[in-house]
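Please review this one:
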Amino acid sequence: MNQSIEFDNAETDPNLPEIVRKNFRVPVENAQDVWVKIQDGRYDILDISPGGIRIPVEEQNRFVNGQVLPMCELHLFGLCLEHLTGRVIHVSPGDKHLWHCGIEWTGIDTDKTGRLVTVLSEMKNRLLEHGHIEGDV
């Protein structure tokens, strides 16, 4: 018995704001080449965008929403962006008894943003072309 389901177009509410992501996220495969230093601790990065990162943490209260994180260092394939300020935007349940912490960069200057976008664009291109990121970027 073949049955078909017909779909109607969903009605949109013109009063709802349009949600558009400003930045693309690139998943990080190699923790030894892409990591962040926050408060004298080294953290792997799960994914990264020009606007911020998502890291795994073991303790739910390691960071709290709204917490300002001064003097961060972002390490990307030998490039080190120092003196970054982050702000915790969420702490959510993650995988394997870990928590995921979203951090956005605040007050990042255009030079650092440009260098970050260049590396992330290369990472994104390699991921799209080869299905993974290998070697130096």
Observations:
- Residues 22 and 49 are 9 Å apart (CA to CA).
- The mean pLDDT is 85.
- The helical segments are 110-130.
- DSSP finds one helix and eight strands in the chain.
